[in-house]
Amino acid sequence: MIDSNKTPAPARPLRLLVIGGGGREHALVWKLARSPRAEKIFCAPGNPGIAQLAECVDTSSSNVPALLDFARGAAIDLTIVGPEAPLVAGIVDSFAAAGLAIVGPSRAAAIIEGSKAFAKAFMRRHGIPTADFEIFDRFAEARDHLNQSALPIVIKADGLAAGKGAVVAHTRAEALAAAEAMLERRLFGEAGSRIVIEKFMPGEEVSVLCLSDGARIITLPAAQDHKAIFDQDRGPNTGGMGAYAPAPVMTPALLAQVEAQILRPAIAGLAQEGRAYRGVLYAGLMITPEGPKVVEFNCRLGDPEAQVILPLLELDLVELLWQIACGALPEAVVTSPPNGWALAVVMASAGYPGEYQTGKVISALTPGEDEQVLVFHSGTTKDAAGRLVTGGGRVLAVTGLGRTFEQARQRAYAAVGRISFEGAHYRTDIGAKALRHLPAA
Fold this sequence. Notes:
The chain is built from twelve helices and 22 strands. By secondary structure, it is α+β, with helices and mostly antiparallel strands. Helices cover 27% and strands 26% of the residues. α7 (139-147) runs antiparallel to α8 (172-183). The chain is globular. β10 (204-213) and β11 (217-219) form a beta hairpin.
């Protein structure tokens, strides 16, 4: 980041580096490439889908010294960090110390995702609505608390767990098993050495993200993620099996409430505590009978939320990200409601989020086959013969666009039907919740 509120955006196009190699980063590169301000885009490490739009760099997103060397050598004007792990580890601090412009929160600010215990205590300090909670690092104390708690109840690993560190327990046995697995058996390693046990919040989940330069915010279209692996939200949580935007459960009145009671207080509170937040702040919310409450904060774009939010964003993302890096977002940015809908269906490997096989040949849509469908690569690679094959648990995010919700949904699922690989699995009910809030066709 650039420590000046007066640094003007350069008039020339920018050389950009995106860090990460998943579906979120593919969506980021796709959106950046549509800006006249983008001269050239690099992505480290990237993936085969990203390689169609940017030059991929064979460097891990966690190898900060190598990324610094590349940014210097390639004369990168601005670096954008996709995943949470390098942000929590302090990549922004390293780039800033080297005088390189970068978008993302510092290590001190990224702790809002890096530690759920910190985040919950922070919300309590600043009056941000969230579920009641307690924090434990010993199983015996957690067990005593759980034996006296109402059910269902939520047990969360304190640290990063790739979206799989939260358990909603409906029985006492499930709750005790989750706490024991985290604290005693270290299911998530050091990330689960401390846990948050919180009251279950009934309601409907929705994600509201904003861009911030540390003082001002721009709120993005609300999205709804689908974390469970199976239809009707059954089965274990995943990194996300699909999403759509805008989420109709988030009415204009509710969005104004979220900005006033959650987003602005969070940005102001972090600044007050010496943790000025620059980048994307993600608020995972539950719309409860008492109003919106925070389930969790994340310090980056969501995945697969990015794959439905960015196609709807009409603003120039390169310009906005440069302004954030400079700490100089305009006082008032005019944002209009999305002119249409986007819905993404994630195609996953058989067995995900448990053990799964890779190397399965993908029969995919050809580029440009359908302009109203975007196929974002999440876990793909090339085999020795140069064929596109599966390389991860979540393989593709297939996004349909449309003037109506049903049009976007139909296009996404029609495209999914034309893509195949051995063991492909996907949910068939992405977007079903939205229909409760939309008038009948």
